Amino acid sequence: MDLPKLAIASIGGTVSMRAQAASKGVIPTVSGETLMAAVPELTSLAHVNVETLGMLPSASLNFDFLLSVLSWANYQIEQGAVGVVITQGTDTLEESATFFDHLWNHDEPLVLTGAMRSAAQAGADGPANLLDACRVGLADNSRRRGVLVVMNGQIHPAHAVRKTDSMALQAFSSPIVGPAGLLSEGKVHYLRPTLPRNVLPLPQHTTQKVALLQASLSADTLLLENILTLGYDGLVIAGFGAGHLSETWAEAIDDIAKKIPVIIATRCGSGPTARSTYGFKGGEMDLIRRGASMAGFACPRKARILLWLLIGCRRQDDLARYLKEDIRCQQP
Ligand code: ASP
């Protein structure tokens, strides 16, 4: 039978974890081939090329490694794959998804999945998530949707998805917009039409450093004051509420924003930053006056990835435009 080509890469995470000995705790050891063996149905759906590109807990992934995974995925599409699936740890899945989404220049879907329970645990979710991710990767209606995250029967858009629970099976959600779709009886359903996408060029520079700090009550300014001398090229702050800082942090921003891009996001976990509501010192209107950009709907981690990529392709002067577009894209 003429089956479509699908490519799967495993790079680690709980989905690839097993304990080497009782009471030692699980670590990534399971190859992509072994993961695939847990979903025998796959062989009747596609010709699968599966490769193990890494064995890392997702906290230890980095942008250089993700760029090499992206280049592997690009090659798979050139070789005729109708979709690509990547299995990785869930802890930073929202960040890799965003990273890839800014750079994924194909109509074919790039689908990320993982597991909340390792293979050794009762009710392990890895095989079901992998099968669902493959179904999404193979589905015609997944085309022109960029990068998707498939977990626990739901499909999330990369720009909105966040890990919002540390241990639960239902660990991922897309605040405000909700999931892009779902799987039911093996079928892939989308709840919204496709949106136009704006892909960035590959970064020519990868040594830039973008700091991410979180505002907290009665925090000192020591780290903030040293951001420039430490050599950072950009700064993101997870601010209070609608994107606010204390007076002392606001004053420290003056100097920094004259030299490097500064983005203020919200630490709330859902909702946008404001632009024209609060006029107090440290409020968003004051911070914009001091040269900061507001993140809009982008959460602090996604804002940091955008800034890192923009600096990497020398487009940081376009930051405001990209943050605005991010808001537009997130409207259902
Ligand atoms: N708990 C994580 C996971 O779900 C570990 C990791 O992100 O690698 O995969």
UniProtKB/TrEMBL annotation:
The active site is at residue 14. Substrate binds at residues 58, 90-91. Keywords: Hydrolase. Gene3D superfamilies: 3.40.50.40, L-asparaginase, N-terminal domain (3.40.50.1170). Transmembrane segments: none annotated. The keyword Translocase does not apply. It holds the Pfam family Asparaginase. It comes from the Bacteria. One of its GO terms (molecular function) is asparaginase activity. Residues 209-315 form the Asparaginase/glutaminase C-terminal domain. One of its GO terms (biological process) is asparagine metabolic process. PROSITE patterns: ASN_GLN_ASE_3. InterPro entries: AsnASE_II (IPR004550), Asp/glu_Ase-like_sf (IPR036152), Asparaginase/glutaminase-like (IPR006034), Asparaginase_C (IPR040919), L-asparaginase_C (IPR027473), L-asparaginase_N (IPR027474), L-asparaginase_N_sf (IPR037152). Residues 5-193 form the L-asparaginase N-terminal domain. Belongs to the asparaginase 1 family. This is Asparaginase.
